[in-house]
Write the structure tokens for this entry.
Amino acid sequence: MFEVVIGLEVHVQLNTKTKLFCSCATSFNHKQNTNTCPTCLALPGALPVLNKEVLQKAVMLGTAIGATVNKTSYFDRKSYFYPDSPTAYQITQFYTPVIQNGNLEIDFEDGSKKTIRVGFAHIEADAGKNIHEGDRSKVDLNRAGTPLLEIVTQPDMRSAEEAILYLKKLHSIIRYLDIGDANMQEGSFRVDVNVSIRPKGDEKLYTRVEVKNINSFKFIEKAIEVEVRRQSEAWEDGVYDDEISQETRLYDQEKNETRSMRGKEEAADYRYFPEPDLLKAVISDEMFEKYSQIPELPDAKRDRFVKEFKLNEYNAGVITSSVEMAHFFEEMMGEGISGKNATTWLTVELNARMKGDVNITNTPVNAKKLGSLVKRIEDQTVSGKAAKEVLDFLMENEDMSVDETIDKLGLKQVTDMGAIEAICDEIIAANAEKVEQLKAGKDKLFGFFVGQVMKASKGSASPQAVNEILKVKLG
Ligand code: ADP
Ligand code: MG
Ligand code: ZN
């Protein structure tokens, strides 16, 4: 049997205001080739100057993964020619990266954990974009020179599942630190997957294939699965050495297969050498001190939610996997409600009502509002059923408050025992025959009375109170 070996390289686009080596803006929705200058266009004589914000973000990530942050690191030139790279080389960090030897813990569904080693992470400049239109190709250099952190693991993962758990955890950490948007569709979190197989028990690493730029977790999982199948079939058919070579392959989502893109370059092909136009990158003690104070990370938050708000591990994990959801939840809890109710109303009720472009960051029912709705259920102002109507209404009417809506829709629950008792008496008086039958043992009729009272109160009576009163009156 085979063991799967996976190592991951992730390019994270950093959300700095300006590019890595010039003061051009990093936003991309601008007109093509407008965020450019002599430096990122590589005009002769223009010199790069390092953007310090990039080092600050590197300190944050390094701290988050318990890595060594090199206070002094260096830049190198990686030579290659693509039309979208005006320099014909990429400035990167080959010999001394800014981050080394980190760890990231992944959690399996059964509660067990595994540590994935992050070998290093380095700073590098992104290329521009080629745009193909019919038989013409154009180049947009707005993205050229945007800062990236490339985060590279050791070949520690043994299944597609482990790879996805690692990627989701890393993704979540980037979002918690707010050092990048990490939007896979838009290319600000780009994943290269290195895959090989080996006979179980073998320690040696076999030939790996690199599958590049797959833009969703689901397709990464599929790409790994088909690539593992291709390699193991080649092995079983005795053609492994002929068919599996170190190369870059492309994943085709439609056909669900990988295809050869190009032979994998060796380091020697890139002719790395120290970048002569840049000084060393220095992280001062002050900078390190300041930026290693990072916010609470997903694992710590999950554990705290379990302890402080009495959530179960699973729900706490779901809520803290997204920083936006975690913050939303915490704000809801500010209304002094139970963690369990807050979880249901966030992950079930609100979640089901967010459609299309509506998401947790722009929902018309913000955290405070949803929290106060839950509060109104807990203090018995409305029933859970009525609260769903209130929520429906609020999703369409952003300017209304919870209490205004309860009044407007007349959903206030009657908890006044006297009032409910009066309704019960009326119903009992009007159904004398059924009362007799019930007393004679037709227990099912109890539900009939509850229903009639609820109906007479137009659903506003507290069902709990109705039950209690009827039990006493009907014996
Ligand atoms: P390169 O610099 O050519 O991209 P690296 O040695 O830096 O190569 O490795 C790139 C990635 O490939 C790393 O994540 C590493 O863990 C992974 N890797 C290396 N060898 C293997 C292998 N045999 N199987 C799977 N992954 C591997
Ligand atoms: Mg690489
Ligand atoms: Zn520029």
